[in-house]
Write a structure and sequence with these properties.
The chain is mainly alpha-helical. It has twelve helices and three strands. The protein has a single domain, classed as Rhodopsin 7-helix transmembrane proteins (Rhopdopsin 7-helix transmembrane proteins, Up-down Bundle), CATH 1.20.1070. The chain is 75% helix and 3% strand. It is globular and about 60 Å long. The termini are far apart.
Length: 312
């Protein structure tokens, strides 16, 4: 038998970012450029790491997985949002809404754990450099990657399982450009207090705890780096600053949104845009413009490409 939520509400209406027609045209152009930048920037990292043997290290193995997740995270809602700027009626089916929530929490939870894995990698590389390749073996890397996806799956499934049984009888208006869990839960036709607590405990505390653990780990690493030689310290600080910037940009909006998701104020759309769209755009910029190894690898690949054309 089909569940009650399907018999009453078959689709949701997304209010988007603005009702102004002029702004929507501006947003269409702007976000189209941003999305193209996300795809091209992360593809650049994937191609560079794949085709340059100097980057076949544990750190860059984790980085290309982060780029893959960022591209998918930006793609679960951004293309629809861009097309919705040209539509008067912005609707999404119930299953489409459910899929957006599932994949957002799957990828978000996976990225959180992947950032923790990258912090572990930096700790070993900086604090135990002589044993780095032994400790961060291929088996350990695959284990960290699979663990990240497993945590993301459990994190998402534990919340989505309850959503399947929630009745929705109207209204069906979501005040955002995609289906976000706290906003959709508020539309249910029954008391969702316990489910709200689950979201806070699951999403909010997971974000907050991971963020605090990462900050503590970076403090430990920085303390260790201060006792190194000047040259090694400069390189370590450069790498750490990139990681800390990425962690802050990703976690700060998540903590704000999911630790206090059911206050009398609506979820901040700017923060939602930031962690679903701008963070995947900034990651490749941070890891290329501030990373000398990646920039050198891009030059080597470009030089090889030019030389190969000359030999033909």
């Amino acid at each position: 038998m089909e569940s009650a939520n399907h018999s009453v509400v078959s689709e949701f209406i997304l209010l988007g970012l603005s009702k102004s027609q002029n702004l929507q045209i501006l947003f269409f152009v702007g976000f189209s450029v941003v999305y193209a930048g996300i795809v091209l920037g992360n593809l650049l990292i994937l191609v560079t790491v794949t085709f340059d043997s100097h980057l076949h290290t544990p750190m860059y193995f984790l980085l290309i997985n982060l780029s893959c997740i960022d591209m998918i995270l930006a793609s679960f809602a951004t293309p629809k949002m861009i097309m919705d700027f040209l539509r008067k009626q912005k609707t999404i089916s119930w299953w489409g809404c459910y899929s957006q929530m599932f994949f957002m929490h799957l990828l978000g939870g996976t990225e959180m754990m992947l950032l923790v894995a990258m912090a572990i990698d930096r700790y070993v590389a900086i604090c135990k450099p002589l044993h780095y390749m032994t400790i961060m073996s291929p088996r350990v890397l695959v284990g960290l990657l699979l663990s990240s996806y497993a945590v993301g799956f459990v994190h998402s499934s534990s919340q989505m399982a309850f959503m399947l049984h929630l009745p929705f009888c109207g209204p069906s208006v979501v005040d955002s450009f995609f289906c976000d869990l706290p906003l959709v839960i508020k539309l249910a036709c029954e008391d969702t207090y316990l489910l709200q607590l689950l979201v806070i405990a699951d999403s909010g505390l997971l974000s907050l705890i991971c963020f605090l653990l990462l900050l503590v780990s970076y403090v430990v690493i920085i303390y260790s780096v201060r006792h190194r030689a000047a040259g090694g310290s400069a390189k370590a600080f450069s790498t750490l600053s990139a990681h800390i910037t990425v962690v802050t940009l990703f976690f700060a909006p998540c903590v704000f949104i999911y630790v206090w998701p059911f206050s009398r104020y609506s979820v901040d759309k700017i923060l939602s845009v930031f962690y679903t769209i701008f963070t995947p755009l900034l990651n490749p910029i941070i890891y290329t413009l501030r990373n000398q190894e990646v920039k050198a690898a891009i030059k080597r690949i470009r030089t090889r490409h030019i030389n190969s054309k000359h030999t033909l």
